[in-house]
Design the sequence.
């Protein structure tokens, strides 16, 4: 950071180029284009694919708002897809159903899927990739939370025709402000993204051949990220250990996040499922009383967002996503969480499950009511 400060060169330049090379090599793709945020990266990916009005883009109903916001921002229509109830990622069977619905009941042209690597777990790409290919749909990977994840030997942000990530501080690889990146194997697409990043530049930024954005990554943030990359694998191993500890302590008491065989999560969040919204509120309060932060990602599905009220009549139900919005809770999760801290969090959560467990006798009646 001092080196950048002393250089007097704060926009792009070699620190950004070095970082891009490093990130592309890490992911195992030809090109990385660093940019200003994950949201701008999503926007640029849609612009690069020429997606706009009359196009339908399929996005999970259970995600951060930016995934669907970017689709609507380019004038296309997001169609919300339900998710898997144990790993929270897009449900490809529901995608097939809703794709069929859009084809047979609307005038929209289905063009792309944005799959989200929610909470650090890659989406079901072994199924999604061939599906999108067969159906003529482009695949964008929203790896904002997924950087560092993998399926077999293939890293997150290598699965989409274009993939994006975010360096927002709370993401697996966070910087000290806003930042993001795009990944692609396509040379032409990479060039287009570099143009879109700087006002649709041609030969230079005063030769403007298309409408773009100002969406560069700050050089200072590239310096921060270069240092953080040196510790990234160690941090991934540390969060994996935290997740295993949570799994051991919480299995059976609450719904723990499922990781399919061969998948690696980067554990952006460790998110459990509680029996009901009331139980969740109780657990949150108990944690808070002990000075422990927790968060609800996400309290509303995309279908339930006021900003999408105007397109709600186009949507089909997503019951799993709705249920998750009522019952999920994300627990403290970072590489420097100590074992006894994990134990303390787990103890509080397990203790708050006990009344519900006791309330049920073997025949299914509720003995608590009779006692009262
Ligand atoms: C954080 C996030 C984004 C947006 O990234 P920013 O860098 O905050 O703009 C997009 N999609 C998902 C799934 C995210 O979690």
Sequence:
């Amino acid at each position: 950071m001092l080196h950048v400060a002393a250089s007097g060169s704060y926009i792009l330049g070699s620190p950004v180029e070095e970082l891009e090379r490093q990130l592309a090599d890490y992911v195992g793709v030809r090109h990385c284009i660093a940019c200003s945020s994950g949201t701008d990266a999503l926007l640029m990916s849609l612009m690069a694919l020429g997606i706009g009005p009359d196009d339908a883009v399929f996005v999970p109903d259970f995600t951060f708002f930016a995934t669907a916001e970017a689709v609507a921002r380019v004038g296309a229509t997001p169609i919300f897809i339900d998710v898997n109830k144990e790993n929270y990622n897009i449900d490809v069977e529901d995608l097939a159903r809703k794709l069929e619905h859009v084809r047979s009941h609307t005038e929209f042209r289905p063009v792309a899927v944005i799959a989200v690597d929610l909470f650090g777990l890659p989406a079901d790409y072994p199924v999604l990739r061939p599906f999108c290919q067969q159906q003529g749909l482009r695949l964008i990977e929203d790896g904002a939370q997924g950087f560092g994840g993998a399926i077999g030997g293939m890293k997150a942000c290598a699965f989409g025709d274009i993939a994006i990530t975010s360096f927002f501080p709370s993401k697996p690889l966070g910087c000290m402000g806003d930042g993001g990146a795009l990944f692609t194997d396509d040379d032409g697409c990479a060039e287009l993204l570099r143009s879109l990043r700087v006002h649709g530049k041609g030969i230079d930024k005063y030769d403007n051949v298309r409408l773009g954005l100002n969406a560069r990554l700050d050089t200072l943030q590239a310096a921060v990220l270069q240092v953080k990359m040196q510790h990234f694998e160690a941090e991934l191993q540390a969060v994996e250990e935290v997740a295993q500890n949570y799994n051991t302590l919480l299995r059976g008491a609450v719904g723990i996040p499922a990781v399919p065989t061969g998948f690696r999560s980067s554990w952006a969040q460790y998110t459990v499922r509680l029996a009901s919204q009331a139980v969740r509120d109780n657990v949150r309060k108990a944690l808070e009383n002990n000075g422990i932060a927790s968060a609800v990602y996400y309290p509303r599905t995309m279908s339930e967002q006021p900003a999408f009220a105007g397109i709600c009549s186009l949507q089909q139900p997503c019951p799993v996503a709705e249920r998750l919005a009522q019952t999920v809770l994300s627990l403290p999760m970072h590489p420097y969480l100590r074992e006894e801290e994990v134990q303390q969090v787990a103890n509080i959560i397990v203790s708050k499950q006990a009344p519900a467990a006791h309330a049920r006798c073997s025949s299914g009646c509720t003995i608590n009511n009779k006692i009262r």
About this structure: Residues 37-39, 63-64, 66-67, 116, 142, 144-145, 166, 168, 178, 180 surround pyridoxal-5'-phosphate (CB under 6 Å). The chain has a mean pLDDT of 95. Residues 32 and 183 are 5 Å apart (CA to CA).
